[in-house]
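lol ok so funny story. i was supposed to be doing the assay writeup but got distracted and ended up predicting the structure for this chain instead. priorities right. anyway since i did it might as well share w the group, maybe its usefull for someone
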Amino acid sequence: MDPGPCEDADPVFQQPTHTPDPNPQEDIWSLVKRDIGNLAAADLGQITHAVKRRLKMPQYRPEVIHGCLTNTGLVPKA
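and the output, tada:
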């Protein structure tokens, strides 16, 4: 008997729909993208300036970083 077309094929593995470990960088970028979502920039320089300014914001607001780390289990003990 002839093998069917699927019998000699490589196995197919289902990949997870999301990353198993939360990534705090995704939360930071989400905040940046949310802030510049309605930015009407005239050129790339304005966009670059806005992104850099938004990325500096968490450096001065530790509660923002703490909020991004809560889902990862990486929150330092106080």
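The radius of gyration is 22 Å. The first helix runs from residue 24 to 35.
back to the writeup now i swear
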